[in-house]
Every structure is written in structure tokens, then in C-alpha cells.
Amino acid sequence: MPHSPLPTRLSLREVRYDIRGELSRRARELEGQGRHLIRLNIGNPGAFGFRTPAHLQDALARNVPDSDPYTHQQGLPLAREALALFHRQRGTPHAHADRVFIGNGVSELIDISLRALLNPGEEVLLPSPDYPLWSAATILNQGRPVYYSCRPENGFLPDPDEIESLITPRTRALVVINPNNPTGANYPREILQRLVDIAARHRLLLMADEIYDGILYDQARFTPLAPLAGDVPCLSFGGLSKVWRACGWRVGWAVLSGDPLKIGDYHHAMDLLSALRLCANVPAQFAVPAALTGPETILELTGAGGRLHESRRAAIECCQASQHLSLVAPAGALYAFPEVVGDAAVDFDDQAFALELLEDEDVLVVPGSGFNVPGSRHFRITLLPDANLIREVFLRIDRALARHAARARARQVA
Fold first, then answer.
1. What are residue 413's phi and psi, to 5 degrees?
2. N or C: which end of the chain has fewer CB within 10 A?
3. CATH code assigned to 10-51+300-413
4. What distance in Å separates the CA atoms of residue 383 and residue 381, rounded to the nearest whole number?
5. Quick check: 117 and 266 in contact, CB under 8 A?
């Protein structure tokens, strides 16, 4: 008797996560054959030799004996108090420990926050390119992603007029990723204020993914969204993974701000969903106060001469020297998002190119279409390798693009 396949959830067919998708699986096969690959698909500092600061490690180690019981569903009280104080100091209105939610990374909190918000068919405004977890979580929670374009000719900044034109009676939230993953764009205060005004007019929840808020280059300044939002409901996300290089610790947070009368029901929904998973992992939460009040450690990496600064500079210089690439210099975060131009862009398929780069040049990147960019000629790399390795990577990328350009010219002659 033939076996019928086990059915799966239909909405999963619409979900993609190319950062760890088919290309990553093919990379594991090649590594199993003995190939040495340069993996630039994930912003994972520990995989490139970065370490969590010692004062965070000490805080975790000291408190392991106190980590056996469950804690409050919204998170360890002392960690939430520290986060509330941090947000009050930077101007977040109504910041209070009762409105802080700690999760197993920002990823879990994105899912919880959308599940608390959406009814079937309701819409979430997302940037294109986006971090694809936002699209996936919207779809899996029965919502509909609606994309606003962030184009390279505008420095990957959003157009508030376009955003407002996309709003319908079913729109519930506006997501802002700043500093942006994958583009590195850092949003100016003027644009953020216009987004707040749009949310206020249309009674939208602002969802501010600010996980890279401390990773900025060349005097760029970060403007948090919640202080501008005031009484407009806003959920601000952050965590230990990037600024403090503690990805594996899985500590993220979401801080709910705005008029208490407007956010009460949503707060209760978030609290209920947090309770259903009991609590986030406890030991690493003890490091949150140390992170927020301890010594600054990211500026030595992002400032002039720092490792991240030099890797970014190498990526910019390599793209400037290439006849096949154009790059909007990232102002923040851990990525570059180059665009393929010239003859190499003729009939360009970003998925096919990424596979060719992997198979022929031992370099793993993420195609731009994986960030919900239609007709993409982009790809994303992480800036975590040192500058010399970044230069080696771009030599290989240029070699692959030169072959693609030569094939395109040959087709034109034929």
C-alpha cells in the first residue's frame, strides 16, 4: 500500500528564509566533501572570533546558581528594570519594567508580537528589502506582508508618501528596521518623525527593530523611534546578539511604549503569549544590567581603525574598484548589500549567481531576493571577517561576475 505524504501547513509554502535555506544546505554538503568555504550568509560574530565582553560573561557565571527556577513570563525583574531605566534615559515615554518583555532572542519576540496583534488577513507594512523573519512571522500568524520600497538610489531610505499610499483599512502595523539589515541604512530623524505622524493618523502600531542600534560608522548617529512616537503605540526591539556579540545566549527584548489607554489590551495579549511559553532562558538575562551599565565595547570595533570599520572600508573600496558592482556605503549594522551592474547585470539571476559563487568560488552569500526584493540584482555579505578576507571574497566575486559578463557579451554578439 503506497504511503501518502504527511501534510504540512499550507502557509509554510509562502515562507522563505534564504539566510539558512537551500544554499546553506548545499554548503554543508560541500563541506562534507572536504571543501573549505567562506560563509558570509549569517551575522554571527562568534563564528568570526568575536567574543562577548568579559563583564557580561562574569555576570552570567556569577548567577548560574540562581538560574534554576522559572522567572516571570516577561523576564527577570532586575533585567526588565535595567531596560526600563535605559529607555527612560533615552527618552522613551512611559517606559516601565511592566512593559518590558524578554525573549529567546528578538526572533521569538517578533513572532509573539505579531501573534498578539493580527487577525486573519490583516496587513503589516514591511520594508523591501526586509529581514525575512518579519515576512515569515507575518504570514505564519495569518497576516499579509505589504512592502514599501527602500531603493538604492534613495540610499535605501523609505519614502513616507509611498508608505501612506499603501495603507488600507486592514493595515495594523508599520515595521521599521533601523539601522537596517540587509542594507546598512541609518534613518534620519526627519523620516522617522514622518513615519510616526503616519502611524498616528492611521492608528498603527509602530514596530521598531533596533537590534543594531549601537553599530554605526563614520559619525552616523542613531535616533530611537519610541521617543519620537510619544503616545503613539510603539514596540522597540533590541538584544545582546549584535552590539554585545552574544548571539548564542538568545536574549532579546521588546519595550512597549505609548498611551497606556491605547496599549492596555495589546500588553495583556503579549503577557498571555509570554506566559504560554513560561519564560525565556534565565541565565543570560543576568547579563542585561551589565550590558546596559558596563563599559562601552563596540566603539573600538566600529571606530576608525577598528576591525568592523576596516572590514567595511575594504568592502567599499572593493566595490568602487569593480566594474561589476555598485554599493551604497552601509552607515550601520554588520552587512553590505552590493548591486551587480553593467554587462554582468544582463539577464542576472541572483539565486543562480549565488549558487555559482558557492560551487565555483567557495563563497556563500545571500541573494537579494531572499530579502523580498523583486527582480533583485543584489546580494548580502556580512562584514564580520577581517579586512583581508573581505578583499579575498571580493576578488572571487569579481571573478565570477567577469565570467557572467563575458557570457552576456557573447550572447549579444551571437
1. -70, -40
2. N
3. 3.90.1150.10
4. 6
5. yes
